[in-house]
Amino acid sequence: MTPKLLLDALIPLMADLSREMHDSERYRRLLDTLRMLFPCDAAALLRLDGDLLVPLAINGLSSDTLGRRFRVSEHPRFRILLSNVPPTRFPANSSLPDPYDGLVEAHSGELHVHDCMGCQITMNGRPWGLLTLDALGPGRFDSVDTASLQAFASLAAATVNVAERIHDLATTSEQERQRAEAYRLAANQSRRELIGQSPAHKKMMKEIRLAGPSNMTVLITGETGVGKELVANAIHAASPRARKPIISLNCAALPETLVESELFGHVRGAFSGAVSDRRGKFELADGGTLFLDEVGELSLAVQAKLLRVLQSGQIQRVGSDEEHKVDVRVIAATNRNLEEEVRQGRYRSDFYHRLSVYPLAAPPLRERGHDILLISGFFLEENRFRLGLLSLRLATDAQEVLLGYRWPGNVRELEHVIARTALKALAKHPERPRILTLAAEDFDLVNERKPLISELEEQVQTELDLQNGSSLRDAVSAYERRLIGASLARNGGNVASTARELGIDRANLNRMAKRLGLK
Fold this sequence. Notes:
CATH class of the largest domain: Alpha Beta
Largest sheet: 6 strands, antiparallel
Strand content: 15-25%
CATH topology of the largest domain: Rossmann fold
Strand order of the largest sheet: 3-2-1-6-5-4
Oligomer: single chain
Structural class: alpha/beta
Shape: globular
Distance between the termini: 73 Å
Number of strands: 17
């Protein structure tokens, strides 16, 4: 490579340093230039976050790579690159597993990466991340001038530095700086995060950034499985309360007789089994955040007591006359239409308006487009580690199947589908493969949703039963049994979700199921 060629390629990138542009576009242009200068089939920019390498930009790798999180301790090549300041090239016959095996788009078969090199990006004398280059043919990097690659890495560091400085300029107070640090620490403590690039996801993240710094009560709405608890954690992490705990309570998982004790605590002897004083969730969350999941399942009586706490900040343990003052921010979540519940008289209007000071809708997965592949990448990497594989990837036809499915169970269903499919696909191999590719035929999504024709056939069968001499009562019971049984199956046996779907009271559903012989 001639100095003029290198200079001609770098001048536009240097000009970009003085321009305003989104980080993703800045990094994309960086990798485009990298591939133009150096003979590689794929390149990636990864940021070091604790023990994880997080892909910020990719070129020539499958799109789900952006959703993956590479644990350095599990990938010896990454570990070596991070320990060396100069560029490092691995021998074509290296026995070390390559984290990108099977992910390079230039080849769809089982051909592994043959030539691999990378360069550490340093910021303030410390490793910030990596630039990686991969080629499918051996010897492709023989002509690479390591000094030129090192110079390019320095420019990459300058690009990253500019992007981070622009971000820092948006921080207008010490409080915001502390909040960003708390969010970073919270992200390190949890493997789960909000991943996405779709307009719907970006809109939700904007709402989180707006709601987080305030002390408003937030009501997160959305279908089952969209990740409402992750949204709640992100709101808490973006708030001044981030260094205090976030305490969660699933309101649908407790009997009504215990909800009050869980929320407010109890004193010894308050009821049978209360052998000692116990603090409730409000006291545990003092100074922090209380997350009430499935808040639509609370009874009217508990709603009234919670309303008083939201208004005054005073709680009273069960069995005690003494009141305690607490400073708690409440974030609630539900998959029910609480406005309709209020209209039907099943939910208190005043409590609903106290909860929904800042309503925030979590979009269903089917409205998030290619986010499906990014999130799939996250779950693929989780299952690759769990199953002890070197690489777990999606074939092109499998990606199309995932993008075409409507995901009634949203992100939770996607997580379960990938875990189940990976396990079944692995079982088909008599010997453990180096790379496991999930094809469209491995997914059983087509049969997981009952087609409309089946429902019509059931209606026809009910009419035939009547014509063949069955009584009206028997025919109605048979139809109820099929309808309730199908709803229970769709909701994984969850009685509360089934009752919501059918629009009946949970107690009535229990009585009907018992009468119809359903478990």
